[in-house]
Amino acid sequence: MYELIKRDGMAKRGRLTTVHGTIETPVFMNVGTAAAIKGGVSTDDLRQIKTQVELSNTYHLHVRPGDEVVKKLGGLHKFMNWDKPILTDSGGFQVFSLASLRKIKEEGVHFNSHIDGRKIFMGPEQSMQIQSNLASTIAMAFDECPSSVADKKYMANSVARTTRWLKRCKDEMARLNALPDTINPQQMLFGINQGGIYEDIRIEHAQQISELDLDGYAVGGLAVGESHEEMYRILDEVVPHLPTNKPTYLMGVGTPANILEAVDRGVDFFDCVYPSRNGRHGHVYTNHGKMNLFNAKYELDDRPIEEGCGCPACRSYSRAYIRHLLKAKEMLGMRLCVLHNLYFYNTMMEEIRDAIDAGEYKAYKKRKLEGMEQK
């Protein structure tokens, strides 16, 4: 159940009530592909750094350890010791990223495991069954994520198939949620808008899927090669055609600047591997721009990554020490950078919510962007 609390221009301040607790939006979901955040981050850490939602990957967990294994162990929440909401993506993006290993047909996609090469078939029903076994809070519909440079005819056919798949997902989820042995019979379903950089295909698709009255709607197939300007243009065109009384999720985005711009266009769910991936390479986000802690100038710098930051890294350690850990390839260095970056993102989302509540989002966005553009 989604409640739209306030609007500030197009920016939305909302609240999604789920069986695993309440999600205050706009929200950044912390990405734990294989049921763990890369960089040695535990679910106890996630609680400490203000994580609201954890995101895991359907395809990866199906391949290893197997969704049946997770179901036997009581579902993903129990398996990874996390009692707050979890969103599972559908495996559709892997269809895009594993292009050389797959074959798309009407019934679904045949592809080879990236781990051991074994044959896998995934269609709408299989994706829903896997996600039901994982018992996530929110399941994503199975879609095809075509390349943003696909020609218009291919895109139109692909999007029409994604719509047919979405209806099959909805029917299958209703069936699964009614079964007696389903771990989470209140699992929610989000549909995904596709259409690359073709506004007309995107808008028509948004209108079609809005009629299905799903729990939420995602904009997929962006941040896969098009420019930031193209992404913002598509959001300007498409978001007004998605239901305002449901969450709007921009998949796989992005930088702090991308998030600030997308919130201004009505998006309220985000996920991205940037904060954890960059953290593992010593790149950390601050309110004064991004820092590379490998730089020699931090060798004797006894300040925290960012003055006034309440994350576990900044509360206890200096830039010099974290740089030493990174240079020595000590796991703790990566871990501290990842914790800092996720805390930075989660805190920024808190600030965004406060700014919308106060009706001051535009001024906040301008201030934040100007600060982060400093060098």
UniProtKB/TrEMBL annotation:
Pfam families attached to this UniProt entry: TGT
Binding site for substrate: 89-93, 143, 194, 221
Subunit field text: Homodimer. Within each dimer, one monomer is responsible for RNA recognition and catalysis, while the other monomer binds to the replacement base PreQ1.
Biological process annotations from GO: tRNA queuosine(34) biosynthetic process
Reaction(s) catalysed by this chain's protein: 7-aminomethyl-7-carbaguanine + guanosine(34) in tRNA = 7-aminomethyl-7-carbaguanosine(34) in tRNA + guanine
Cofactor(s), names only, from the UniProt record: Zn(2+)
Positions with a binding annotation for Zn(2+): 309, 311, 314, 340
Protein name, entry field: Queuine tRNA-ribosyltransferase
Gene3D superfamilies attached to this UniProt entry: Queuine tRNA-ribosyltransferase-like
UniProt entry keywords in alphabetical sequence: Glycosyltransferase, Metal-binding, Queuosine biosynthesis, Transferase, tRNA processing, Zinc
PANTHER family per record: QUEUINE TRNA-RIBOSYLTRANSFERASE (PTHR46499:SF1)
Annotated ranges, domain tRNA-guanine(15) transglycosylase-like: 11-372
Species name: [Ruminococcus] lactaris ATCC 29176
Classification via HAMAP family: Q_tRNA_Tgt (MF_00168)
Lineage: Bacteria, Bacillati, Bacillota, Clostridia, Lachnospirales
Annotated GO MF terms: metal ion binding; tRNA-guanosine(34) queuine transglycosylase activity
